[in-house]
Amino acid sequence: MKRTVLIALTALVVGLLGAILFQSNQAHQERDSRDTWEIRTEIREKQEIQESLLQQIREAEQRLDEYQHQNNQEQVELLKESVETLRKRAGLTEVQGEGIKITIEPIMANSDRVQKYPEIPPELLQRLFNELNTYGAKDIAIENERIIQTSPIRDVNGQTYVNNRPIPAVPVEIFVLAEDARELIEYMEVSKVNDYFAVENLGIHYQLDFHITLPAYQQRIDFEYIRSAETEEGGN
């Protein structure tokens, strides 16, 4: 009986992983030409997937604790691998690979006047992340903050916060893992998002990087905050 339950749980975890990977790959195949309502709907769906994923991880880890000292060692190892794969997909582990380094720098005019350093608006940063995901980004981190599907990007008293922490003043570095980094750069170099940044006096520079390490997402995922924010948006 215990062996049957363990096999079923392993199949459930692996099946969930496959569904998530399929959805993610489908999203990367389409250009983002949707209206605001469609984008919000997709974001909400991704948040629900992330929440379900984390719940499955918690349940699987609890089962692992229960079966650690049983004789089903092969099944336990398979379940461990599945949990680790899910954790990686959820952004909860450090990852390494090939990708691109993005530097956002101020565009300063030739003037003797004192100029204020521009800041990155949260909606513009979100647009950049959406564009990267559309063109094949697998994992993203800004400075030392890992971006996951539920990462909040918002304005707090005029300053942009990511994962409830303020991003530093420009220049800011963003690291992106991708299956095909060269292709991603080619897409991004002609993307309209560069023009949007230029309007804010911000320039974007893309560079291949063959040895990128992204940190794991470290903070507690506050789904209550996400639901609250969605409710407020829906009421506006």
What report would you give on this structure?
This protein has 236 residues and is α+β, with helices and mostly antiparallel strands. The protein has two domains: 1-90; 95-214, Alpha-Beta Plaits, CATH 3.30.70. It contains seven helices and eight strands; from the N terminus they run αααβαββββββααβα. The protein has helices at 2-28, 36-67, 73-89, 122-134, 181-189, 193-199, 223-235, and strands spanning 95-106, 137-142, 145-147, 153-156, 159-162, 165-166, 172-178, 202-214. The strands form two sheets. Strands 3-2-7-1-8 form a five-stranded antiparallel sheet, with helices on one face. It has a three-stranded antiparallel sheet with strand order 4-5-6, with helices on one face. β5 (159-162) and β6 form a beta hairpin. Residues 19-34 and 223-235 have low confidence and may be disordered.
